[in-house]
Design a protein that fits this description.
- InterPro entries: Split_barrel_FMN-bd.
- The chain has about 300 residues and is of the alpha+beta class.
- Helices cover about 20% and strands about 35% of the residues.
- The protein has one domain (about 5-295): Pnp Oxidase, Chain A (Roll), CATH 2.30.110.
- The strands form two sheets. It has a seven-stranded antiparallel β-sheet with strand order 2-1-5-6-7-4-3, with helices on both faces. Strands 8-9-10-13-12-11 form a six-stranded antiparallel beta barrel.
- The two termini are about 35 Å apart.
Length: about 300
Amino acid sequence: MEFDAKVAEVLSSTRVLEFTTLTPAGGVSTRPMAGVWFGERGEIVLTTPAAYSRKVLDIRRDGRVALLYSDPAGSGLTGMPVVLIQGRATAPEVVLPPQDLERYWRGVLDARPPWADATDDPFYRSAMGWFYTRLPIVVTPLRVDVLEPAVTGGDWQPPPPDGASMNERISDALTRYPTAVFAARDRHGAPCSTRATVSWTDAGTLRLRPARPFAGTSGPADLLWHRHDGHAGDLASLLVTGEAAEIRGEWMLTPARVPRPAGHREPPSYQEWLEDGQTRSQAYLSERGITPPNIDWDALTSYKAP
């Protein structure tokens, strides 16, 4: 699929996109991710650590996906249009080290994420091998929709405590972020998404106002509020799932829950996050009889932009 120069620039420059897959229960699941556009191949490449394989398992079951390029932070673009890509993703049964995904990692490291300078540190290397053991995702675009620029960003103030209720976290997000990503399934059953302003109604549901008519249908949906500084690993976010319905031309969502982003629990400290990631990664590999690949740390370090 060929794109005009403006769309290609958005795909090449956007640092963090919103990636939506279909869940086993028939709903949608949206998360912020880094992606690299391979223009000569007409493909978008994303990856995820083996420790966090849920999105890959979604794709292996149903490869229909949506990618929303809506946040220009870190891209250098002004007046960037929102671009929605609907396509077909594949996630082969391989686990790849950085040296086998050189162009992807060069694209990610070109943004100078805060951890880029740590890759030559011996302690970092011993603790983070699991994080760079990656499952590749390749998306072939099938449809593109170009929308008006969105108001994005948000306040970096500390989030509410872990014990806050769902409604308290939503209320916090409504004051923190100007818009959310609204995702649902279109009339063909494929995921689609857009930016929308969100507010409470007196009935305790959420009123959604997309920038223009939304192609989604009533049913399972989610809302993702997030902001970042141009790096997929340096962000704040809240994901809420529920049931959406279009009523007399207005979209409403009844919130149901806040899914955990990476499993059954959120490790409360950095050390526990490391241990949790190592355990999850080893479990994924062991279940499939895969030997962890050797990581060429010197090669990864060399991919950093000067």
